Amino acid sequence: MSSTLAQRLADVDARIADAARSAGRDPAELTRIVVTKFHPAQLVVDLAALGVRDVGENRQQEITAERAELADLDGVRWHFIGQVQTKKARAVRAASDAVHSVDRDRLADALHAADPDGNPLDVCVQVNLTDDPGRGGVAPAGTARLAEHIAARCPSLRLRGVMAVAPLSEAPAAAFTRLAASADAVRAVVPDAAWISAGMSGDFAEAIAAGATHLRIGTAITGARPAHG
């Protein structure tokens, strides 16, 4: 195992704790998800040996392959954080403990239909904080309605909160403030849906200040991603 990986993990955790304390928050309230995008499955094994319990992937093929390869690895929760094609909903559900990127009724319906009587799947409503309708996520004005659909029509999905990526075109603090308003709208529908999945390697301090509960951090911990096809 690379000592550099351990050093990067410790450095990021220290920065998370500092940011939390600066915001008047308890670092223990935060869940750090290590995004292992494009890395081999061995990295998840190495991370688990360092105490990491939450990992994230954003492509269905990768999370499916890694879950199969690491079937004997206990104690790790797998978060799917990428866009989901409806036709891949069954595979995503089978490989995931949580899906952060539910952004439309049809996807929620497909995830529910994939295993309607199975263990509840934790999900977040993904909110699009840009003006580009082609980006992933529901428009902020539609957040509550999508939350109502999930709560009423998809009993095998457990709505946990919201997720978003800060746009590159504005300061992340402003974007995360808008996400907090969407989080309030979801909690008006499902009061215990308290997750705010926000903040990545470059902006997690701003996300923490705005109330984020789940941070999705990749390269700051994993190092440069390997080349991929």
Question: Which series of helices and strands comes N to C?
Answer: HEHEHEHEHEHEHEHEH
Tally of contiguous helical segments: 9
Q: What's the Cα radius of gyration?
A: 17 Å
Shape: globular
Q: Strand sequence of the main sheet, in spatial order?
A: 7-6-5-4-3-2-1-8
Alpha-beta content class: alpha/beta
Word description of this protein:
This protein has 229 residues and is α/β, with parallel strands linked by helices. It is built from 9 helices and 8 strands. An 8-stranded parallel beta sheet has the order 7-6-5-4-3-2-1-8. α4 crosses α5 and α6 (143-153) runs parallel beside α7. The longest helix has 20 residues, at 3-22. It is globular. The mean pLDDT is 96.
